[in-house]
């Protein structure tokens, strides 16, 4: 009897669930994902392989496999251009812009989320409307403002790190405020109201109750502000000089009138990408939670 029932049980175990996806869909998904992965990883492979080639191999006909492997470009990138100085400038500018943007956005978003005041709707609409305009529209006005401030007060904003930090705040701060408003709205008001009943002031309730609950949203805003400032080219190419130049502009120094050091360009691009990649991997879980919390709640 058991020999007769065993094939029946095996057949039942092999039977597919009525809700399972058909095999054609599974194979189509695998093929599409494989093509997308190849499309994304192909430029990375070209960068890595080109950074390990001598200049004559990169300047000639493209080869998928390097004929000679060398790590010399990773040493030459620090001598061809002052990459270390550009790296420090980018860290100072991007880090300062991120700290200021997140700090101001936390206070502003908390006030909009928790309090009623005259002009609240106008403020939120104005913050959102700034994202509708391309950054190039603000380039000439900011340039004229900085130059006039320097001529009238002696405060050199044009060509300084401080001027570039203020410039980055003009487009990172509105987005940070708008995003944190939605995240603070998703946090129950009972938390900070209970803190106020226990004797906490508004600022203490913000930092001891609301901010710890809003860590994913704050991390997401911080990553966005840092990445935006780290890779920005338009404003950095106009608002900086030789002493305050950032990495995004400094990479152009590998192109001279006679030649372009493509292997060093690829090596420098990989080195420049390391802080962003490492930071994203370390903060990935907070970033995903911060970006999706508003949609879920």
UniProtKB/TrEMBL annotation:
It holds the Pfam family BPD_transp_1. Keywords: Cell membrane, Membrane, Transmembrane, Transmembrane helix, Transport. SUPFAM superfamilies: MetI-like. This is Carbohydrate ABC transporter permease. Belongs to the binding-protein-dependent transport system permease family. CDD domains: TM_PBP2. The chain crosses the membrane at residues 86-110, 122-145, 165-184, 205-227, 261-283. One of its GO terms (cellular component) is plasma membrane. The lineage of its organism: Bacteria, Bacillati, Actinomycetota, Actinomycetes, Kitasatosporales. Residues 87-283 form the ABC transmembrane type-1 domain. It is a multi-pass membrane protein. It is found in: Cell membrane. PROSITE patterns: ABC_TM1 (PS50928). GO terms for biological process: transmembrane transport. It comes from the Bacteria.
């Amino acid at each position: 009897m058991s020999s007769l029932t065993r094939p029946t049980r095996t057949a039942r175990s092999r039977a597919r669930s009525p809700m399972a996806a058909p095999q054609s869909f599974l194979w189509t998904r695998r093929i599409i994902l494989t093509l997308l992965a190849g499309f994304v990883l192909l430029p990375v492979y070209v960068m890595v392989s080109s950074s390990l080639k001598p200049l004559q191999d990169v300047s000639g006909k493209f080869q998928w496999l390097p004929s000679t492997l060398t790590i010399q470009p990773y040493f030459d990138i620090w001598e061809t251009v002052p990459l270390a100085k550009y790296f420090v400038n980018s860290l100072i500018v991007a880090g300062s812009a991120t700290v200021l943007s997140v700090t101001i956005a936390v206070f502003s978003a908390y006030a909009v989320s928790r309090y009623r005041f005259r002009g609240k709707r106008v403020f939120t609409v104005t913050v959102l409307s700034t994202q509708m305009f391309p950054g190039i529209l603000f380039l000439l006005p900011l340039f004229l403002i900085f130059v006039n401030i320097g001529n009238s007060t002696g405060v050199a904003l044009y060509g300084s790190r401080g001027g570039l930090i203020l410039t980055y705040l003009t487009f990172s701060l509105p987005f940070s405020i708008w995003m944190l408003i939605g995240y603070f709205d998703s946090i129950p008001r009972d938390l900070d109201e209970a803190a106020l009943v226990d004797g906490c002031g508004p600022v203490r309730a913000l930092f001891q109750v609301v901010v710890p609950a809003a860590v994913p949203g704050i991390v997401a805003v911080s990553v966005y502000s840092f990445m935006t400032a780290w890779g920005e080219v338009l404003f950095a190419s106009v608002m900086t000089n030789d002493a305050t130049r950032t990495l995004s502009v400094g990479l152009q120094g590998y192109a001279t009138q006679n030649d372009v050091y493509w292997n060093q360009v690829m090596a420098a691009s990989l080195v420049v990408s390391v802080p962003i990649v490492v930071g994203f991997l370390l903060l990935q879980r907070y970033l995903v939670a911060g970006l999706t919390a508003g949609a879920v709640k």
